[in-house]
Amino acid sequence: MHKFFLALLLLSIPLSSGAFAEPQRSGTAEEQKACARDVQRFCRKVIDDSDLIILSCLQDNRPKLSAACDHVLKDHGQ
Predict the structure, then answer these.
(1) I need a labelling partner for 64 at 20 to 30 A (CA). Which of 18, 36, 38, 71 fits?
(2) Where residue 61 falls among pLDDT bands split at 50, 70, 90?
(3) pTM for the full model?
(4) Of 45, 44, 36, nearest to 65 (Cα)?
(5) Cα(40)–Cα(52) distance, rounded to whole angstroms?
Protein backbone atom coordinates (compact mmCIF):
# COMPACT_ATOMS: atom_id res chain seq x y z
CA MET A 1 0.00 0.00 0.00
CA HIS A 2 2.97 2.28 0.66
CA LYS A 3 3.92 2.05 -3.04
CA PHE A 4 0.41 3.13 -3.98
CA PHE A 5 0.80 6.42 -2.15
CA LEU A 6 4.12 6.99 -3.89
CA ALA A 7 2.41 6.27 -7.20
CA LEU A 8 -0.11 8.98 -6.49
CA LEU A 9 2.73 11.40 -6.02
CA LEU A 10 3.79 10.56 -9.55
CA LEU A 11 0.38 11.61 -10.79
CA SER A 12 1.47 15.17 -10.25
CA ILE A 13 4.36 14.74 -12.70
CA PRO A 14 3.37 15.19 -16.33
CA LEU A 15 4.59 12.29 -18.45
CA SER A 16 6.28 14.44 -21.05
CA SER A 17 9.84 15.61 -21.68
CA GLY A 18 9.84 17.18 -18.21
CA ALA A 19 8.78 13.95 -16.52
CA PHE A 20 11.48 14.14 -13.89
CA ALA A 21 10.80 17.69 -12.83
CA GLU A 22 9.73 18.57 -9.32
CA PRO A 23 6.15 17.50 -8.65
CA GLN A 24 3.74 20.39 -8.93
CA ARG A 25 1.71 19.01 -6.03
CA SER A 26 1.40 15.75 -4.18
CA GLY A 27 -1.72 13.64 -3.96
CA THR A 28 -3.94 14.69 -1.12
CA ALA A 29 -5.39 12.21 1.36
CA GLU A 30 -8.71 12.58 -0.47
CA GLU A 31 -7.09 11.76 -3.82
CA GLN A 32 -5.31 8.76 -2.32
CA LYS A 33 -8.58 7.51 -0.86
CA ALA A 34 -10.30 7.94 -4.23
CA CYS A 35 -7.94 5.45 -5.91
CA ALA A 36 -7.06 3.08 -3.05
CA ARG A 37 -9.86 0.62 -3.81
CA ASP A 38 -9.07 0.64 -7.55
CA VAL A 39 -5.39 -0.08 -6.91
CA GLN A 40 -6.33 -2.97 -4.62
CA ARG A 41 -8.86 -4.32 -7.11
CA PHE A 42 -7.03 -3.95 -10.42
CA CYS A 43 -3.33 -3.52 -9.61
CA ARG A 44 -2.74 -5.85 -6.67
CA LYS A 45 -0.23 -7.93 -8.67
CA VAL A 46 2.01 -4.91 -9.28
CA ILE A 47 1.57 -3.09 -5.97
CA ASP A 48 5.15 -3.93 -4.97
CA ASP A 49 6.57 -2.84 -8.32
CA SER A 50 7.67 0.64 -9.31
CA ASP A 51 5.38 3.62 -9.01
CA LEU A 52 5.24 4.06 -12.78
CA ILE A 53 4.06 0.47 -13.19
CA ILE A 54 1.21 1.12 -10.74
CA LEU A 55 0.27 4.27 -12.64
CA SER A 56 0.43 2.34 -15.90
CA CYS A 57 -1.82 -0.34 -14.40
CA LEU A 58 -4.37 2.29 -13.43
CA GLN A 59 -4.23 3.70 -16.94
CA ASP A 60 -4.60 0.23 -18.47
CA ASN A 61 -7.71 -0.31 -16.38
CA ARG A 62 -9.13 3.15 -17.08
CA PRO A 63 -12.57 1.95 -18.28
CA LYS A 64 -13.05 0.01 -15.04
CA LEU A 65 -11.89 2.68 -12.59
CA SER A 66 -14.26 4.39 -10.22
CA ALA A 67 -15.41 7.84 -11.27
CA ALA A 68 -13.51 9.34 -8.33
CA CYS A 69 -10.18 7.74 -9.28
CA ASP A 70 -10.69 8.59 -12.95
CA HIS A 71 -11.25 12.20 -11.90
CA VAL A 72 -7.97 12.18 -9.90
CA LEU A 73 -6.06 10.90 -12.91
CA LYS A 74 -7.62 13.53 -15.17
CA ASP A 75 -6.85 16.28 -12.65
CA HIS A 76 -3.20 15.27 -12.84
CA GLY A 77 -3.09 15.16 -16.62
CA GLN A 78 -3.09 11.38 -16.89
Answers:
(1) 18
(2) very high
(3) 0.66
(4) 36
(5) 16
